[in-house]
Design a protein that fits this description.
Structural class: alpha+beta
Low-confidence stretches: none
Radius of gyration: 15 Å
Strand content: 25-35%
Order of helices and strands: HHHHEEEEHEEEEE
Length: 175
């Protein structure tokens, strides 16, 4: 799954409405990954605007698999009308930031810990395409909650477990 994501990332500039990159069908629910790894897989496919083709047997789908595959906020990133594939914008020793623009000047941001140990990850505005003075609100797509304050310059997820993601939508404030 990770090598497919890396290969697909190289083709990001060629993707768009009428021509999406397809790194392969989803493996969510097929075994051999943890629930968190499935969540990472689904998140990466969603931000890359890849077709979200289920590859599991829906007759035997467990509750965790159903929750991941039906995550409306994550699907909304994949289906955003702007149609720009997100891509890897920072990678340091297995800690990655992926980002992509969305409609209404929003940005989808994904912190992906590919290491074998817990770590924090920071997305800097310069990496994700936001002007340095931009102030944003943050929506955590897997926790289904907005963070309580506004942020400017960078966004840090301080504790991401091994092989896990944190996925956000950053929305500029108009204050």
């Amino acid at each position: 799954m990770t090598s497919n994501a890396d290969q697909n990332d190289a083709w990001a500039s060629y993707a768009g409405p009428g021509g999406w990159n397809d790194p392969d069908m989803l493996e969510v629910g097929n075994g051999n990954m943890t629930t968190e790894e499935y969540r990472s897989h689904y998140s990466i496919w969603a931000i890359m605007k890849s077709p979200l083709l289920m590859g599991c047997d829906i007759r035997n789908m467990d509750a965790d698999t159903f929750e991941i595959l039906s995550a409306k906020e994550v699907i909304s990133v994949n289906q955003d009308a702007l149609g720009v594939q997100g891509k890897k914008v920072r990678s340091e020793g297995g800690l990655e930031v992926w980002a992509g623009p969305l409609t209404a000047n929003r940005v989808a941001v994904l912190h992906w810990n590919r290491r074998d140990s817990e770590a924090g990850i920071t997305a800097h505005w310069a990496d994700i395409g936001l002007p340095p003075t931009t102030v944003v609100t943050v929506r955590d797509l897997w926790q289904h909650r907005s963070w309580p304050s506004t942020y400017h310059g960078s966004l840090t997820a301080p504790s991401i477990c091994s092989h896990c993601v944190k996925m956000f939508i950053l929305s500029p404030t108009h204050a």
